[in-house]
Task: structure prediction
Amino acid sequence: MPSQPDSWSTRLASRAAERREQGLWRHRRTHVPASGVHDFAGNDYLGLARDPRLAEAQANGARRFGAGSGASHLVSGHLEVHETLEQRLADLTGRPRALLFSTGYMANLGTLQALCDGDTHLFQDRLNHASLIDGAQLAGARSRRFHHGDSVDLARMLARSPVNAPKLVISDGVFSMDGDVADIAALATISARHHAWLMIDDAHGLGVLGRHGDGCVGRAHDLSRVPILVGTLGKALGTGGAFVAGSQALIDHLIQFARPYVYTTAQPPGVAAATLKALDILATEPERRGHLQALVAYFRHEAQRLGLPLATSTTPIQPLLLGDSRRVMHWAGELLAAGILVGAIREPTVPKGQARLRITLNAAHSIDALDALLDTLARLTKAEDSP
Ligand SMILES: *Cc1c(COP(=O)(O)O)cnc(C)c1O
Result:
């Protein structure tokens, strides 16, 4: 039987209608430089993405090595600048080696696919990033999710799993939609007790937390406690790409077996050169992290005074837990009209009923911009109080 010519169009139209009715339709917005909109939505925590020194380093890298790498790392795309960057990332995080991936999404897919098979047992925090959930699926591993931040629940699951099965415990370092930080010490202790490896995805901690900007794991928790560390370059470091850091044996294994590593073109060399510049700035301008922490403290103090529904986060991710997705869209729209961009986060990114404004702070924000944000939030709260 030939398929009906219009069945796909009907299917797409009905999925679209359903999504709109639920108030969950996602929009892209085209951003133009210097539009005067204050960005409180991005992950550029140190304000490096638009730093002219990074742009300059990127241009120089492209002139020297080419605009593109020309091939995958295992063919001819692994350039000197990639090798240097891997060494610098290993040094920053206190690990023997690091391996570059094109994106954090691919680093997580590749790591899980290379390490796991149908016999592996995975234990993931319920709020882990989508790429970790998808990676478990790609790997075909048995995956269970423990209650967010609940090491007792994790310990119970581990105790019930087969003693001799290979086990991997996985958690975000800083949770991307809540801003809270995982208890790395507790996770490491429980994992070791059950002979499980611990993998931490520190996408939002790297560059922001830690004495050296080395993240919530970095040099504070060594290789024996956290054997697998993932970091991304598109957030605080302001460029793009990601890396896995760990032992020589782990990195060798990923080079052999991680398909999302093997079968993709290496990162453009200019991006690697710009990332090296970002690492220089991270090391020489600790005041950026200091200013960022001051902005977080100021925002939390003022938001508390206004009675806004703050989360417990002490990181630059400061969600306002409004609950209802339509309310979130309304507030985000009013803020945008006032020249302030925030993230409007709804299901399925967060559980139903937990929609939120995801406000992120950035070392390039001025106190004036923060005051403009707080003034608008104050007006929105008042408007709801007086119908
Ligand atoms: C952003 C993010 C990723 C994905 O990284 P990309 O480089 O953007 O693909 C992975 N894990 C976490 C926790 C993230 O927040």
In short: The first strand starts at residue 38 and ends at 40.
